[in-house]
Amino acid sequence: MDISIEQMNGADVVVLSGRLDAAGAPEMESSCRQRIDEGARRLLLDMGGVEYVSSAGLRSLLVLAKAIKTAGGTMVLCGLTDTVREVMTISGFDNILTLATDRAAALDLLN
Known about the structure:
Elements: E1 2-8, E2 11-20, H1 25-37, E3 42-53, H2 55-70, E4 74-78, H3 82-91, E5 98-100, H4 103-110
Parallel strand pairs: 2-3, 3-4, 4-5
Antiparallel strand pairs: 1-2
Helix pairs in contact: 1-2
């Protein structure tokens, strides 16, 4: 899992690529949790480079969504591939997490 974090319009944009599985999910969760602990309240996860999401990855996304909500913030996922979007739909996570097609739409939802 490759992770980079950048700022865009006052939001923390976390760009992910690779597999969000038992190996990659803890690193992603830790990186995002650190940003939340440092005061991030607008978190955008750009998942355009994520090719696979396991149950461990789904769990980490749920943990982060709860953490940022508790902190008074918002998290939006964008750029999901068809495969990842299908996993979100089948698991029902598309009804739990906020999803956007691209960064622009995600930033609109965060504002």
